[in-house]
Fold POLI polymerase.
Amino acid sequence: HSKCASARGAVGRVIVHVDLDCFYAQVEMIRNPELRDKPLGVQQKSIVVTCNYEARRLGVKKLMSVKDAKEKCPQLILVNGEDLTPYREMSYKVTELLGEFCPLVERLGFDENFVDITEIVEQRLNQLQQSGRSRVCVSGHVYNNQALNWRDTTHVRLVIGSQVAEEFREALSARLGLTGCAGVASNKLLAKLVSGTFKPNQQTVLLPESCRDLMRSLDGIQKVPGIGYKTTKRLEALGVESMCDLQVFPPATLEKELGASVAQRLQKLSYGEDDSPVTPSGPPQSFSDEDSFKKCSSEVEVKEKIEELLPKLLDRIHKDGRQPRTVRLTIRQFSPTDRWFNRESRQCPLPPHLLQRLGKESSNDLSPLVDLLMKLFRKMIDVDLPFHLTLLSVCFSNLKDLPSSKQGSIGFYLKQVSPPAGSGKRGREVEDASRAEGT
DNA sequence: TGGGGTTAT
DNA sequence: ATAACCC
């Protein structure tokens, strides 16, 4: 079948982008249903990072300060969302659910997934042709309200894609109680851009003839995923502000400014072209935990912060079952201007014996690890001089599978091959299995 | 402005 | 190790 897929590669893929609505707020509403019909914000430090649609109706926006949000909406209920555990867990349930339909699922953050459903669509198209039908119903919106041409198999395939997307959303709702948007198109860029066109809990399919319109509808190059803050500044300095500017800009000049690979990729993006594959994310490549604060200025405080971060992290690593071979400490030093840029980090190999016992029963001696992290800290900061930190982060990476004899649960890939999208039980089995084996 | 993540150089 | 990107 993979032969079919690559031979037919030129015909075009069918990609779905799934984007959950105000994800953290949804998770909080599931955790506490009394919050359902009230304006709800999720708070991290002094920021409302996201809020439900009731709160949005009353003027609250994402990433608004708590102060502004309360002014706009005094009845706003706030829950603390600094511990990402509930969101992370629900996020992986979403990815796993999509993985039951098809193995090609790529995560983007906690609340978005790309799914390459080319093969599913191909199967359904064959069934359809054998049954002698030529028409299928489109699910959700068609971008621009473009008319369908049933003789165009690209149209038909995308319409079948819209039905699959509808099934994704139906499964997310029925099994996890989550709502979200979906976009269906021939590549990741377009699927992502089109998924946001009808906003809560709706879906949209893009037909190729409307690609130009979709790209032209973007106001400013920064709306293109892949063109971030830095690149936007550099492009603006070249006089590039709109999508059209970027499309017609001399490629040679662009390559000199951004390097050939970035320049070529971005210019293709400006035309709505994106050949990047949907790369299955699988289990995470790293585990990190961070905390930000107003001020931390002594070695003792640093050590205390690290000792706060470690237990939760080690617990996560233990549950994952793999062993990290690298540990990293990241700091942010105070700077009145430019609070975003000034992160520094030091990393080192993690001696296997150090991590060996650490996950086991949670109350172990953390001090060798803490000492190691303090050494990393001293590589960045001369502790004899005054310092002022505003963030500390610990990250474990370079994860290696344990020899299969002594393995915990590896939820992710195991489940991909097991259950067909059935009706019965789920989740609980996996949790129990991991505990049973872990002890 | 949080608390995460990824890939490229 | 950093810099860029994503949410």
Observations:
- Residues 218-274 of chain A form a domain with the DNA polymerase; domain 1 fold (CATH 1.10.150.20).
- Residues 106 and 281 of chain A are 5 Å apart (CA to CA).
